[in-house]
Amino acid sequence: MTLLRYKELEKMDKKTVDGKLKDLKMELARANVAANKQNAKTKEIKKAISRILTFTNPKSGRVKKR
User: 1-9, long-range: CB within 8 Å, 24+ apart, which pairs?
Assistant: First the structure.
């Protein structure tokens, strides 16, 4: 899995961002079941999820409407 950058999120439309968030949550669940502990992969997935949620937060004023 590659690092998810803010510039990449700006290029995506809302449907793609929502799909990516759903995929990351499923991947996090699978990683937690397989590892039974927090490792570097789960930490990276959590960062990506929080970055998406911050990007889509309407209070931040950075949401792009397409």
Answer: 1/27, 1/41, 1/44, 1/45, 1/48, 3/44, 3/48, 4/48, 4/51, 4/52, 6/51, 6/55, 9/51, 9/52, 9/55
63 vs 66: CA distance, rounded Å? 10
Q: What is the pTM of this model?
A: 0.73
pLDDT in tens, 20-64: 999 999 998 888 777 666 788 888 899 999 999 988 887 655 555
Domain ranges of the chain: 6-58
How much is the CA Rg of the chain, to the nearest whole Å? 13
What is the Cα–Cα distance from 32 to 14, expressed in whole angstroms?
Answer: 27
